[in-house]
UniProtKB/TrEMBL annotation, chains A, B:
Residues 99-469 form the Aminotransferase class I/classII large domain. PANTHER family: ALANINE AMINOTRANSFERASE, ALANINE TRANSAMINASE. Belongs to the class-I pyridoxal-phosphate-dependent aminotransferase family. Alanine aminotransferase subfamily. This is Glutamate pyruvate transaminase. Keywords: Aminotransferase, Pyridoxal phosphate, Transferase. Homodimer. InterPro entries: ALAT1/2-like (IPR045088), Aminotransferase_I/II_large (IPR004839), PyrdxlP-dep_Trfase (IPR015424), PyrdxlP-dep_Trfase_major (IPR015421), PyrdxlP-dep_Trfase_small (IPR015422). Its cofactor is pyridoxal 5'-phosphate. One of its GO terms (molecular function) is transaminase activity. Pfam families: Aminotran_1_2.
Length: 488, 488
């Protein structure tokens, strides 16, 4: 008996879902894969590169870069994971390890969720949503309803949910900023919906040109696109910009007039270094109070996360979104959609609760919490400015003020000879630059093409999360050598 | 100035994504919503119903029904959340609370993930995947490759990923068992792909009729459906059946001949009460070893979860899938797809590691682990049989042997008068029966129509997770009264 010929596979690159193939997510793209392989090479042979470790500045992942978690949060999370510690029989020993308010909080959370190992309500445990509502109320000065809050596995899951619900057909258009965090374009590609790209104005701190929004909207509609939503990332990713009150007002007015849902990605709301964060919800409520009728029923979904800010707990996958002005029948469909995934991680839900209801003045954990929080904030701010200063002094590089978020997104003028070298290498010029940077310094960034940028301009996004400033010096040196090699 | 008329909303039920509207997920459907509202009513007025609490037997959520978590798992999870406990300065106190192997495991996990608050590799932390691979090797007697294992947020996320990647266009067909866990039909509805339904044979323990698979496949293809995959749930949900070796062999042969991907949902692999679990991977490797050529490149994705079995940690959202025989380019697309969601919860990943690498004989935590594991297993088995016996003795009810999983799915003969009452109420007869059961006993089940069933037959699914057997008695009493009221 001779063997049968090998069976052909069912799935190959030519016959899988083309929308999956179209989706691009550069944050974990080619550069990141190369960085990971360099990291492994260095483990085997520390002399294989002119640096001793890779710095993953491609992704806002604070604890991967040694940011310490907030002690109170982790104490409580460890208690809810091990309720035996709350047993009276362990009280004497446990009080040496845990402050009283951590024990109290853990008991309260366990009452609310029963067990972190049980599925919760698909929208998140009701009592925890209550804490989120109070946080929003305090932040904005307007009421918030726990029934309109959905806890999520990070903000990404929430963004995906909303886009899923509104993507009716291939004509569905969603206005997204360029540059943008690629979750938006990737999800729209998966849903076969159209991104309608509005370009942020780099010279004026990546501001939003509202007049241009109206023009773009008219153009898209005239081309048959059914524009349903405008997404705003504030503070900006990758831009690091922070929107002033007036811009938010203008965007809401635009959305009100054009009957668009607003998706406000506000995950960096506490990462603001210049000026003050104002939420879309607050500005919307102000407008509704001041201008009767026009702003009624404006549909706003705003997103927050435990991954960013001074919390930085990316791996715990906590987040929430608040719906304002949505049709109750649509909210029901959103609920059904999330129920198919059962529930967000319950530990992450507990963390959302603590992020929005941290220790208060006078409570045992407050001083340490405050110190840790401020130290992280100040560290981020210091590094943001150090990086910004370095970029400003680099030949052909321009960098907007570091207003917020965790990123700087400088423009780089790439010399003609380098553009040609990139072409030979089959790469975009900023991909080429970023790859050379990685190989020379171990610093992994994301090329601007991963976020979108005005044609003929080149950028990269770097976080300012890595400790120290030594790596900034390495970037400066690399850039000088790159320019010396390729200068026109 | 008079107020402007209220703005119309952008989104209403008539213009959202119709695929979201089409998706159905009865496990958290109308019955579950009613059960939750009864629970709240009872909180306010304990005399409002003839029972004092609701039993959520609609969902496999063990810890919601008082199943205790495995101590070792929770000890380690609490340590990885609070690494300060591993600090030398706390060693004296901590050793009173934690056994040595829990401390060691936590240190090892933290070395592997750095922090549970950091994003991991999108496929899951490599070292943890190594433990999963070893578990599979030991289970099946064949090698497993950590690079082919994807850690996930529960098995549901993995199932959704695979279906996303293969759903090329509206002609894409995926064979699913009927009755099925509604994740499959819901996800296919979202993807606008076609479920191709194969009916399990109730009288012979919900077995799979392989001849019928060939006929159904031919029919679907002749109708223009591009059948790409067959899904199998083993042990079965909602059926509670466990597939014998020969059936698995036949299904693999069918898939090999018809060039189909096999999705094997094996989340109940340790919940087997009659016979022994055999994995699709093992049978596939056996076939490949025995029959050269024919079974090469058979594409198998098998799913497992920390939510079921004796682990029962639904809220932690841990799971994995293993890919066998997939085209490397397709694997790359799967990787990109999951990277858009960044990573599964890192705490859940640690739990997957422990589920697949529990304490071993001779280690300090082994005895307790073994006792807890066996107690849960025996408790489930006892209750499964008790429920099965009760069903067997109920008028017009038939129940297959409780072979596995967490469910019993009895047939109920619903009298003509009850069918008419249901019709008046705008309900399917099994929905009507289940709603009456809920209101009379507080036991929430899921009607068979939520899973699919042969036309003219009626079922419901109940878990056997609730402690005690008092509630079984309540079902028996209800059924008798129901029959007395409606008997023909």
């Amino acid at each position: 008996m001779s063997a049968a010929p090998a069976r052909q596979r069912s799935l190959h690159h030519g016959n899988i879902n083309p929308r999956v193939k179209d989706a691009k997510y550069a944050v974990r793209g080619e550069l990141a894969v190369k960085a990971e392989s360099i990291r492994r090479e260095l483990e085997k042979d520390p002399s294989s590169y002119p640096f001793d470790h890779v710095i993953f500045a491609n992704i806002g992942n604070p604890q991967q870069l040694d940011q310490k978690p907030i002690t109170f949060f982790r104490q409580v999370l460890s208690l809810v994971q091990n309720p035996d510690l709350l047993d009276d029989s362990n009280a004497e020993v446990v009080k040496k390890l845990y402050p009283e308010d951590a024990l109290e909080r853990a008991k309260w959370l366990l009452k609310a969720v029963k067990s972190v190992g049980a599925y919760s309500h698909s929208q998140g445990a009701p009592a925890l949503r209550g804490s989120v509502a109070k946080y929003i109320e305090k932040r904005d000065g307007y009421p918030a309803d726990p029934e309109s809050i959905f806890l999520t596995a990070g903000a990404s899951a929430g963004v995906s949910t909303l886009l899923n619900v509104m993507a009716r057909d291939p004509k569905t258009g969603v206005m997204i900023p360029i540059p943008q965090y690629p979750l938006y374009t990737a999800t729209l590609a998966l849903l076969n919906a159209r991104p309608v790209e509005y370009y942020l104005e780099e010279p004026s701190h990546w501001s939003t040109n509202t007049t241009a929004l109206y023009d773009l909207h008219a153009k898209a509609e005239s081309e048959g696109t059914d524009v349903r939503c405008i997404c705003v990332i504030n503070p900006g990713n990758p831009t690091g910009a922070s929107l002033p009150y007036k811009s938010i007002e203008d965007i809401i007015t635009f959305a009100a007039e054009k009957k668009l849902v607003i998706m406000a990605d506000e995950v960096y709301q506490t990462n603001v270094f210049i000026g003050e964060f104002v939420s879309f919800k607050k500005v919307l409520r102000d407008l509704q109070a001041n201008v009767p009728g026009k702003y009624d029923n404006v549909e706003l979904a705003s997103f927050h996360s435990t991954s960013k800010g001074m919390v930085g707990e990316c791996g715990q996958r906590g987040g929430y979104f608040e719906l304002v002005g949505f049709d109750p029948e649509v909210v029901q469909e959103i609920y059904k959609f999330v129920s198919i995934s059962l529930c967000p991680p319950v530990g992450g839900q507990c963390l959302v609760e603590m992020m929005t209801n941290p220790p208060k003045e006078g409570e045992p954990s407050y001083d340490l919490y405050k110190k840790e929080y401020d130290d992280i904030y100040n560290g981020l701010k210091t590094r943001a400015y150090a990086l910004h200063e370095a970029f400003k002094n680099m030949e052909g590089v321009e960098s907007q003020d570091p207003q917020g978020a965790m990123y700087i997104f400088p423009t780089i003028t790439i010399p003609r000879k380098a553009v040609e070298a990139a072409k030979k290498d089959g790469k975009q010029p900023d991909e080429f630059y970023s790859m050379e940077l990685l190989k020379a310094t171990g610093v992994c960034v994301v090329p601007g093409s991963g976020f979108g940028q005005k044609e003929g301009t080149w950028h990269f996004r770097t976080t300012f999360l890595a400790p120290g400033t030594d790596w900034v010096g390495r970037i400066v040196d690399f850039h000088k050598q790159f320019m010396d090699k390729y200068r026109d």
